[in-house]
Amino acid sequence: MFSNYLIALREGLEASLVVCILIAYLVKTGRRDALKPIWIGIGTAVAIAMGFGCVLEFGSQELTFKAQEALGGSLSIVAVGLVTWMVFWMRRTARHLKAELHGKLDAALAMGTGALVATAFLAVGREGLETALFLWASVHSASDGTPRPLVGAALGLATAVLLGWLFYRGALKINLAKFFTWTGGMLVVVAAGVLAYGFHDLQEAAIIPGQTDLAFDISDVIPPLSWYGILLKGVLNFQPDPTVVQVTVWLLYLVPTLAVFLAPSDFFAQLRGKSQPAPPAAHDKA
Description:
single chain, mainly alpha, 11 helices, elongated
């Protein structure tokens, strides 16, 4: 439940911030006439994201078991790739998001109504599709037949909408760069679990071998149906009896990705500076 809350909160807050920035800019510049196309683009993006989620959920039910596992595993890997790209992109551009959106909106205003609809649709639609895909993959990997994952996602989206409204009203101020860094780090941990379970699905579909090669089995210590087993499963996609492939994939993704993501922003710039040869000294030039 918590992992789905975190996913919906982070992705939903990005979309809410985009909407708030677009609307606030139009209101402050006296272009309220352009609000209708913006809302049309936003509404279209939300509808397509919800439709995409429904297609994933109900369309997969018509497949055979192996086909469902192959689809679930493949989409889990795709979802992890998209979310990884998203958290790195947001960490890099969080400070400049407003200026970037203002520039796009100015260009759209000059081009007309259709461009406004497209700007709002693309700005929100990307977040909506990513949210639908990653939530579906997370629910698919962690669901235990209860509505808790969907409840967590709904609460996350509701919190994101509330925070977005408070930002718009000026009632809430927060360091967005730090917020997206910390939530992005937690999301990388969640993504590692989704990725490992995605490979487990591919093993069940007989696409990847090694389904019976367990790395360890601590089911007696952490029963899957115990409250703490369910909690670990819901938060981290923890499995007490993972395969060797799952543990390997989890480590190969989590350790380097988290290390790079949490490294100081000037870390790689410093490395590049050290790798460049030093300029020749004055006496060398002479």
